[in-house]
Amino acid sequence: MRRQMNRTRGKTLAGLSVGVMLASTANAQSSVTLYGVVDTGVTYTNNQQGHSAWEATSGNESAPRWGLMGTEDLGGGLKTTFRLENGFNIDNGQLGQGGRLFGRQAFVGLVSDRLGTVTLGRQYNAVQDILGNMQISGTLTGYAAHPHDNDDINNTFRTNNSAKYVSPSFAGLQANLLYGFSNSTGFSSNNSWSAGLNYTNGPLNLGAAYAQMNHPASSAVGAVASDNYYGSESMFGTPLGSATRQKIWGAGGTYTLGSAILGLLYTGSRFDVPAASSLRFDNYEGSVVYYVTPAVVLAAAQVYTHVTQGSLSGHFNQTSTGGKYLLSKRTDLYVNVLYQKVSSSVGQAWIESISAPSSTTAQVAVVAGIRHKF
């Protein structure tokens, strides 16, 4: 089944209300906090292998999760930090991310006011951290992600065994570096690394990042585990999961203009596969988010994706629109409408996270639901 709970990342986590205190030490400078999201709804698709479909769907705007995060003040501008974040399907109660207890994130580290943050564990790479917030799926729904989530911004996989460094902000500029160990004697048999820069200045947010995965999914213990990579997705008959190397790159920005947020984003990805030409995707996205009132938010985006492999080429066009009504600061109702049209060389339209492809070159999806953050 194509829908995967692990795909919709916590892009809006910074805006969640995570003030519910689970426990605290006697030191008021140290704390542990419980937070989470529950999100479910109904999705209609006009064509899944020739038939329309109505489905109860979990995690349409934000993947359901609960987590623990905490800090301890060590003095002198130094703190410990940790996060344990679980993902689950609200409609059936199953664990997400391949059944992992803390499959979304699991890390511990040190934070220095002067030197930055170092964390170790299962984490997001620089592309996800920096460019993920610029994609419209962070405001609308995971269905608005780029075809096959080829750039991993919608979190098809996360990085295990990773060491990550995030610098302090210098005049709005911040660096992000990550390395994921293969945990095998073949040092590069399943390792990963990424690097990126983010710049924020008032209403302007800019970012660029690169990530590389060497022999991903070649083992169960590496940086990109074999149960934590692409599944049935393929292009021109080539499975994305067969890649011996994947490279992802991109740059983008958002600008807040009054009640509107304007966004531009480019990402590219290349899958090197055995005995065939490399498969390349180029994704171009323009978006706008408009706050009609503090309680009513509208959004729209247009994505064009060009894909090539040797002499083969094709393209995707997808329009994503939607809106939400905030019943409170923590609860909202949402509706999203998506339309995808592909070239005849691609064959079948398949909106990201929909259970099955269309039998034609077009597909329409409508999703409505409720989300609560705690």
From TrEMBL:
<dbReference type="GO" id="GO:0046930">
    <property type="term" value="C:pore complex"/>
</dbReference>
<dbReference type="Pfam" id="PF13609">
    <property type="entry name" value="Porin_4"/>
</dbReference>
<keyword id="KW-0472">Membrane</keyword>
<dbReference type="InterPro" id="IPR001702">
    <property type="entry name" value="Porin_Gram-ve"/>
</dbReference>
<keyword id="KW-0998">Cell outer membrane</keyword>
<keyword id="KW-0406">Ion transport</keyword>
<keyword id="KW-0813">Transport</keyword>
<dbReference type="InterPro" id="IPR002299">
    <property type="entry name" value="Porin_Neis"/>
</dbReference>
<dbReference type="InterPro" id="IPR033900">
    <property type="entry name" value="Gram_neg_porin_domain"/>
</dbReference>
<dbReference type="GO" id="GO:0034220">
    <property type="term" value="P:monoatomic ion transmembrane transport"/>
</dbReference>
<dbReference type="InterPro" id="IPR050298">
    <property type="entry name" value="Gram-neg_bact_OMP"/>
</dbReference>
<keyword id="KW-0732">Signal</keyword>
<feature type="domain" description="Porin">
    <location>
        <begin position="16"/>
        <end position="342"/>
    </location>
</feature>
<dbReference type="InterPro" id="IPR023614">
    <property type="entry name" value="Porin_dom_sf"/>
</dbReference>
<keyword id="KW-0626">Porin</keyword>
<dbReference type="GO" id="GO:0009279">
    <property type="term" value="C:cell outer membrane"/>
</dbReference>
<keyword id="KW-1134">Transmembrane beta strand</keyword>
<feature type="signal peptide">
    <location>
        <begin position="1"/>
        <end position="28"/>
    </location>
</feature>
<dbReference type="GO" id="GO:0015288">
    <property type="term" value="F:porin activity"/>
</dbReference>
<protein>
    <submittedName>
        <fullName>Outer membrane protein (Porin)</fullName>
    </submittedName>
</protein>
<keyword id="KW-0812">Transmembrane</keyword>
<comment type="subunit">
    <text>Homotrimer.</text>
</comment>
